[in-house]
Design goal:
Blueprint (H helix, E strand, L loop, with lengths): L3 E5 L66 E5 L12 E6 L3 E5 L16 E8 L8 E6 L15 E5 L6 E6 L17 E4 L8 E5 L7 E5 L7 E4 L18 E5 L8 E6 L11 E6 L4 E5 L19 E5 L8 E6 L17 E5 L11 E4 L17 E5 L8 E6 L4 E6 L7 E9 L8 E5 L3 E6 L4 E7 L9 E11 L16
Pfam family, one: FG-GAP
Keywords: Glycoprotein, Hydrolase, Repeat, Signal
Amino acid sequence: MLLTATATATAVLAAAPPLPAAGPTTPFSATPFSATPAAPGAARPAAPVPGTPLSAGRACSGAPSDFDGDGRADLAVAAPYAAVGGHARAGSVTVLYGLRTERLLTRDEPGVPGEAGTADAFGSALAVGDFDGDRRADLAVGVSEEGRPRPGADGRGAVQLFHGSPTGLRPGEVIDAGDAGRRRGPDRFGAALAAGDLDGDGDDELAIGVPGLGGGGVAVYGLAGRAPYILTQRSGWVRQEEKATDQFGAVLATGDFDGDGRAEIAVGAPGDTVTRKGQGSVTVLDVRRRRALRLTQDSPGVTGRAEAWDGFGAALATGDFNADGRADLAVGVPGEGLTANQRAMEYGDGTVVAVYGSRSGLRGGVSEAWSQRGLKGAPRYSDRFGAALAAGDLNGDGDDELAIGVPGEGAVQVLAGTRSGGLTKRNDLLVTGKGGDFGAALAVLPGRRLVVAAPGAGRLVLLRGSGRTGPYPGVRPGTARTLATAAGRSLFGYALTGRSG
């Protein structure tokens, strides 16, 4: 068997070396492509983790992850270090139509604007949504390292759109910082992506991370009646202090946390220094009401305590864990240290904080925190519990479960949702795999299916869920099978697409 599993129960508060990088990385870089050097003599930083590619949660258009409209779920898989046309680390995306038929997307494909270039990292982020309102899913692909001004520098970045059609994805427009009214610089435009219906008009808008723009930024593309624009921490209604190492926009998710029919954007800034270096933060942006709420582990009602290098916000996922019709937010804190005698900036045992939506959004929500201190398994300083997250209904009872990547352990942990309080420790499931940072990226697909990536090994594993009402994770480890593999060190599975609302 490829996988083993153990199930049990418990709750409480609660990262394997980082994926290969093109150059040195700053602490809590959300992708392995940043070329900004760490301080001389610094200890190894907490490992970079993929930005959450899912726009899970409510207030999405409702389009399934179905690019050709045949009623079967499709999956896009990024390999941002794949060689293309003789160019190393140019990047590619494999689309598995119906999880069977493969089609490769690169910048050298006919009709795709531009061409593949060395270290472009096509596939540095993915998002799926209905951007043109035709009820077929479209795909956004980040190319965050495109246009590097010199070798070893960060890229200017861009986003390539592909539109769904009866014959599958077809090339669409390219978006870059110039389209959002900014000069193109080494800002890594497209390092994170998320889709959601931000204005309530029935189709999706696209949020684009620009973590290298000063302390970072988020571009908003597709709002009705408004040209694309970029928000930063210094924007008038966001009103946050900005530091160059914050990485605001390195991770993104969307969800309707207040139940008003319009999604908000959750913006991870895993390097944010609010009161402690690299503690991390998440800012919820309501772009229609022009309201911002910053959450840290020191915020009122948020479980835990902020510490240096925690990386709060290094992964995000939204889902409805208590079936109340409002999206809830899961926040990965993979740098959280639980093991005694840890040194500064070591990888971290990791925790996950869940903040529940309410009529007033996350501002009035309650929270809880989870770690392997109270779940199956034992925390270790290299586990990075919470480095990847995905949410979806894996047991078919109407509330969402939460899958938590533990790539340092080579595992994924699944918590069940319940209508009587949300996530529960009852029957929690730990599934372990073989190497390659198994658990570094996750996706939940329609039909109660969980995809787990091991990008270091270029392998995807599919696990199926079963229908069972109540506090059950749904996932059946005995159904595990290898879904797809790729040779070489392409980081196949670095980012995945899942459900879109």
